Amino acid sequence: MYKILIEIFNLLAIITIICFPLFKTKGRGIMGISIITVQVIISSIVAVSVFSDGAFEYAYKGSVVTGIIPVRIDYLSAWFILVIGFTFLTGAWYGLQYMKKYIEQAGNISMHIIAFILLYTALIDICLVQNGFVMLIFWEIMALGAFILIIFEHYKIATLKAGINFLIQSHVSILFLTIAFMWVKTKTNSFDFEAITAFTSSHPAVIGVVLFAMFFIGFAIKAGFVPFHTWLPLAHPAAPAHISGIMSGVIIKIGIYGILRVLMLLRTDMVSIGYFLLFISVGTGIYGVMQAIVQHNLKKLLAYHSIENIGILGIGMGLGCLGLGYNNQLLTLTGFGGALLHTLNHSLFKSLLFYSAGNVYQAMHTMNIEALGGLLKRMPRSAYLFLIGALAICGLPPFNGFISEFFIYNGLFHGLLQNNFLFIMTILFTIIGLVLIGGLALICFTKAFGMVFLGTPRLKSNIDKVKEHPVKIFPMYLIALAIVVIGIVPILFSPSLLKIVHLYQPDLNKEVLIQFKNIVHKLTSVGWYSFGFIILTALLYYLRYFITSRRQNSIDATWGCGYTGETSKMQYTASSFIRSYRKLAEPVLLIKKEKKEATGLYPKIVKQKTHSNDKIESWLIDKPLLLFRKFLNLFVFLQNGNIRAYILYGFIFVGLSVIVPLIIDKITTILNFLNQL
Amino acid sequence: MLSFLLIILVSTFFMGIVIRTKSIASGRKGPGIFQPMRDIIRLWKKGAVYSRTTSFIFQIAPTAYFVSVIMAILMIPHANNPGLISFDGDFVMFAYILAFGKFLMIISALDTGSSFEGMGASREALFSMLVEPAFFILMGSFALFTGHTSFHSIFSALHYGSYIAYMLGGMATFVLVIIAMIENSRMPVDDPKTHLELTMIHEVMVLDNSGFDLGLINYTANLKFAMYGAIISNFFISALPIEISIPLFLVIQFIFAIIVGIIESFSARYRMGHNPQFIFILTSVSLLIFFGVLLVLGKFM
Description:
The complex is a heterodimer.
Chain A: H1 2-19, H2 28-53, E1 56-60, E2 69-73, H3 75-98, H4 106-128, H5 132-150, H6 157-188, H7 194-201, H8 205-223, H9 232-238, H10 241-265, H11 270-293, H12 298-325, H13 329-364, H14 380-393, H15 400-416, H16 421-453, H17 470-488, H18 494-504, H19 510-548, E3 554-556, H20 574-577, H21 579-585, E4 590-595, E5 608-613, H22 615-633, H23 643-676
Antiparallel strand pairs in A: 1-2, 4-5
Helix pairs in contact in A: 1-2, 1-4, 2-3, 2-4, 3-4, 3-10, 3-13, 3-17, 4-5, 5-6, 6-7, 6-8, 6-9, 8-10, 9-10, 9-12, 10-12, 10-13, 11-12, 11-16, 12-13, 12-15, 12-16, 13-14, 13-15, 13-17, 13-18, 13-19, 14-16, 14-17, 15-16, 15-17
Chain B: H1 2-25, H2 35-44, E1 49-51, H3 56-73, H4 90-111, H5 115-146, H6 151-156, H7 163-183, H8 202-205, H9 211-234, H10 242-266, H11 275-297
């Protein structure tokens, strides 16, 4: 039955895309949404029944090139199918309202909807198929679909540039994945994922680690691990809000899915992989959030924050690997469990944040934090939803971000009790990293929320037009509800998490299960505690209201140290809010300042600009590219525009291609002759 | 429950002792030890002036801040009696719930749209971020030392076997005292009695709060002091029976308050730019504790 459902799922996408031009322009949006909704329902039915009935598998015969194409849906696939489905559902519903502003670009929107359906189908199929070759095809479809979605506003140069950057990096990712799959294929003559297990278990551990490195680079480019993160901060601001939300929520997560899948298949030295993952993840997390703080573009800030969250996910995975390597089952459970839960959580609050940012963009037509302000009074719904997302992403209770971080902390503090010195030091380093990430996230989101939504407007234009449609907000309420529910009832997902971790550690012993039950029990206390926190706050707030409403209260201007006028220019700005942090973090960041001093008795208007660049990007990509171009420029004399010279090159090429093999042939003959002497 | 009641009790006169110590150190007689509490009660009875720019965030932030500290206090044990809520890893929750209150206070300061309050908010966010690692390493060290991961089980299993272990307790006390001073924005980092907004941290954040809210914020500061005092006292009263532990608890809180008063009287505020360096010292001291624990347990290589 699953087979039929999955075939219907794919057929639906294909038929829709073929029939799309036949429909009237007006109904296309609604139709796209309904197709996506039906697809999400179908895939969710499959995923949920996998969780209740157990893993499922069947195979297509395939062709000579691909070999057998197995379709396996285990708990890991099912988990990701559900996460992807929910985000796409809310994204599509939100997108319908968001795109109404662009209603006159009918053709462009049709293309957008087709790419959207393609992207969703490809993502789900990546989770289903376990044949390297076919998966790479879906991977390519996903990259192209995402590319088309990103460049919706292709008439803007910056958007197009970001899109092309994304496309190139996606293909670098595909290159590494292809190499990895081809390697396994040549050794085992099979594209089946299980060949990876066979290959690595019959070869020394070093081979497995190198193979992992190949896969990791490929998937890390998609996931956005530092230093492969440079496409994220460009692509997210360029794309429409619902696409940014989906990109940050699930497209980068497919990279995580890839890494998790490979970790499940590899039989190799898990300890070194674990240490590697931990170090790169802590670096990713800290670097991501450090960059996020200094961004002035709200969407860019959120994009860097995705990088930070990928770091937290990586910490979970690294812990899980160390647990596998050292045969510490509780560590495996908490590590992978935390990473999986954080995948879900991050997809929720990040999409919520991007959708709110999208509302801000549509109202104010800018994402520059320095130009916004005071939006809470004009768009309260978006503002409070953004606040929920911000609190959740900082990992604060009573929201869901805390639950997954708590999971990982549990693993870390449990890991501290081991006897291995190197391990203890790594754990200590990770704890410090995770704590710093939390603290820096707090700076980042107090800045983002405070500057955009609080205070008074910094620019007076476009203020009165803002109107919020409750319908437009509806999917966002759904996400916010999920965030709160997971925060208060965290045990909701622990059985599913346990099932997934079973895949990594099939021989979980009873003692660990009891310990895990303790953790679940703990999560219940955390849930109750969070609930108590909310109730107590509400009660006390009511009490306060009861007391203060009888007193004489008055409303006046903000206290201005004696200055009684009101001007938005007196407010603290985003740059000044992070100034002391910036001074501290200057060595890591790359901030360009343009500043003019005020001179003369009657100075004219003085302007100061700060521009934050990505140091790793400039070192790792921009500078080598520049050097490479310089090197290539040495040969620019060849391109002289003279047609005769080009014909000469042609002749030289043809001549060489004939002569070189001949010469080589002669040399080998001579060598053979010499050898015989 | 016991520790909760004790902390509430101490919070009523803690700041009074600090002020009294400061007065005596500067050659004045000073007010009675319950005077700060009387001031707070007076504030609770007053009406308030709200800024025109503020929103609901400004209204709820002081309450949420207060509740976050109350919830944190619920987790703190007293000798062998666990706090009202106790589970493995509760100190993570402790730190994060306090961070929640801080988050709301920071955005409520930004809510006023003032030039000064943003400044205080910015500093508060930065300094509390820098303090966090010290607390986590400290708790991590004691988790490693005792093999447990909750406040109650750590403190009830705490036995100082050797002199080095006593030194660890001493250093932990030092770290916690300084953390308490920073979290409450007291002397070496912030001067609550300064007259100039440009040099304040916490005081400048609450410039626009008045009446009941201001009283609540001030009382929360007292609670926080008493809370840290309770954690410090737990380092010394690990397994004593109640008849001894309660008086000892009060004595330790008393000494803690006097130390705070003395530090405030005889030290000057650092330059704002030097504060991060000072706070980093805390992290290094807690790293020292961590290595000390490794040494005591013989886990060094």
